[in-house]
Each structure stands twice: as structure tokens, then as C-alpha cells.
């Protein structure tokens, strides 16, 4: 086709021009394709690889003082106080909208049974995989278990395949509200229901608030294609409670996104966050309480003399009171309780102002290849896939980390094996109760300063608990110097923790 307004070029000029142009375009294309191919090649992880030096001789040399993660266990000679057998199965389940989906059960139900232990108990849980084809594991979310018991496929154990089993043993040291879930193909198995609540009750007189007359677990979960539920039940769940009784409500957010909880019909106090009691928490009036994905909040709620009280979260509520009592309903309060200023300061177990090491965990996003797949992926400190930083620590160190979210989405950040103390948000210091978390929402544009004591040797995942984000690369590890693992990740390993 030719442009009628343009004088025609001589056939020779046009030919010469097009040849030169074509050569240049071809050369540029070749460079671009070569560059993309190299990026693609470089992003591919080997069929199997280790996150840490291995004893097998293929990885880096391990010093004589190297510790294998499998040896980091609880006292093998101590008998169990709480013993449980959990059978994992694939199942076709029905969601709250009547639709069916491929899900999972533990001992025939989802969520799995509530595990209850007393502070100091030795807990022993034998996981049997009956027929979960991808294999499975159990991770004790928020519990600082010994590293070999952390349940991360490819890091602390191999996935348990159908017919296999794995026994988890740990001491329930810190009383509080926790949960357990699969950490193999976790973005499918957790939403599909391979999870359950875990409560560690305090021993009287050891610190945790024991004023409550009873407690009630409120496990929030949304199954595939369904609406929000409390332990599988949509809309309203009721628990009998006498007028005047104070109930410790243990809210657990097992979803991938933030949950909000508030109370209608009474004031509440927020007793604990992520299993740790807050110091002198005041009355919460007209504020909603945020739970990051994976987080827990324990609320003290007193049943009124003449009615019932309703603990609400969008779409669901837990009513506490006599069987026929009516509980009021309230819209979500406009303002959120700010844990940066809630409660009263207390003495800390270490000097948070003088860390031995400081790290940055900067979350971003860019176009590139993640294990050979082109896309728009998450980055950590600008890098992705196997190039993300691994944070090394030594036992005994106080480690500071600044989490910076330069992406447009919230990320519920979760470090395994440790409780971390929040010291500042956007540079503004925390002035309330010590605020210990294991699951922390970092909103778009926010930065959080956290600090933790490296007192639990191992190799610990440090990832986003919006589990599809972990699949998309928002995952790395905090690794103790000298700790090695014999387990492998990668396509050929059978392990896929995300
Ligand atoms: Cu709740 Cu890495 O997990
Ligand atoms: Cu995320």
C-alpha cells in the first residue's frame, strides 16, 4: 500500500532502505530475544535444589559445627501429655452456597479437630495421609516449635505422601490461640480446608489473663466458592453463655485476606494478639479489630444481664448468651483499633533499640520470569525467585527488620518460629503495650520496623500469608548460620511448600 500524498521513492532507494532497516530490526529482535531467553533460563530453578547447604556434599561445605535441621527436635524421651492422630483425606465438600468443591478433611471434617493443650504440655500429633495425592504436612502457625517440627515441605521435612505418616512433637510453651494447616501446596490445601484450631491454655498464675469464665473459638474461613464461615457455618453461630459471664473469644483468620472483627451489645477488651497477651488493654469502644491473614485476636466479652452479645465479622457472627436471648447487630465501626497505641508499655526481654543485625525486606513488583514463567511477579529487595535475599542470623542475636511495602496491595507478613515485636510504623514508634505478632498486615506504601530475638535455631520461612502471593514469589527464609537441611525443593523433589 502507498500513501497517495507522498511522492513515490525510487524503487532502488526504497529497496536499500528497507534492507538496512530490516537488518537493524532483526538484530534488535535477536538481542531482545536473547536477553529474554537468558532471563527465562536464569529464572528457572533446577529440578531439585536446597535452600541451605546440605550434608550430601553437593552444596557448600558445612563446618564441623553444622547442625542438621532434622536434629532440632523436642526432648525425644519425654512422654506426650496430649496425643492425637490426624488423618488427612481428599474429599468433595459442599460450601455455604450449596456448591461442591475438591477439599480436604482431617479425621473426617473440616476444619479439623481443635487441639487443646496446657502450657508446658508435650504435644504429639501423628499425621497420616490417607489419600491427599500431592502429599501434605502440618505447620503450627504461630507456635515457636523446634525447627524439625515446623512442617514445611522441602525445608524441614518431605511432604507426607498417601500411605505415609509423620509425627510432630513440641512443647506448648506459650499459652494462646494458634492454628495448624498444611504447608505443602498450601495455597490449595489451606483454602480447601486442611486446617484446624490449636489452643494452649495457661496454667494459673503464670501470667496470661485467666479472668474469663469460658472460652469460645471463632475460626474464620472461606471455602472455595462459598461465603465466609465460622468453622464452616455461614451467618450466625450461637454459644450458650450465662448473663454476666465473661467469655474469651479466640478469633482466628485462616483466610488469605484481612478480616475485621467487632462487638455489638457490649464493650470488649482485646486481651491478646497472635497468642501473646497485651499489657493492660483498655476497653475497646466503637473500633473494629483487624486480623491479618493468619492472625489471631482474643477478646474478652461480657454477656449483658438482659440479653446476648454478638461478635461480628463481615457476613458472620458469634452470638454469646442464653438460648433465647436476642443479640443486637451493628455495622462495622468506621475506625480501626490502632495497636501502635493500645494498652500500656511493659519491660521487654531484650534491648530492641540495639539490634545486632538490621535487615530490610522491601516488597515490590515487576515484569519478569519466575521459574521460567513470564508474568508480573512480587520482588523482595528488587529481586525475584531464587535471587531473593535469604536472611542469615546467629543464635542469640537481636535482629531488626524493616518491612517496606512498595506495592499497591496489602501483604500479611509471617515469620515462622519466632514472635516479632513491632517497634514502629512509618517511622512512628509504638507507644502502647508491647505488640508481638507472627502475622502482620503491611499496607500499600507502609513500612514497619520489627525486631526479634534469634532464639530458635533453624531455617524459617518468612513469607506473605496471602498464599497465592507466596506462589507468586513473596517468600524467603530466615536461616541460622550453620543449620543445614537434607530436604529439597524444586519440580523433581515432590515438595512444594507454597
Ligand atoms: Cu501459616 Cu508459612 O504459614
Ligand atoms: Cu502478599
TrEMBL record:
Membrane-spanning residues: 24-41
Molecular-function annotations in GO: copper ion binding; oxidoreductase activity
Ranges where the Plastocyanin-like domain occurs: 101-202, 378-478
Protein name from the UniProt record: Multicopper oxidase
InterPro entries reported in the protein's UniProt record: Cu-oxidase-like_N (IPR011707), Cu-oxidase_C (IPR011706), Cu-oxidase_fam (IPR045087), Cu_oxidase_Cu_BS (IPR002355), Cupredoxin (IPR008972)
SUPFAM superfamilies registered for this protein in UniProt: Cupredoxins (SSF49503)
Matching PANTHER family: FI03373P-RELATED, MULTI-COPPER OXIDASE
Entry keywords, A to Z: Copper, Membrane, Metal-binding, Oxidoreductase, Transmembrane, Transmembrane helix
UniProt keyword Ubl conjugation present: no
Pfam family, one: Cu-oxidase_2
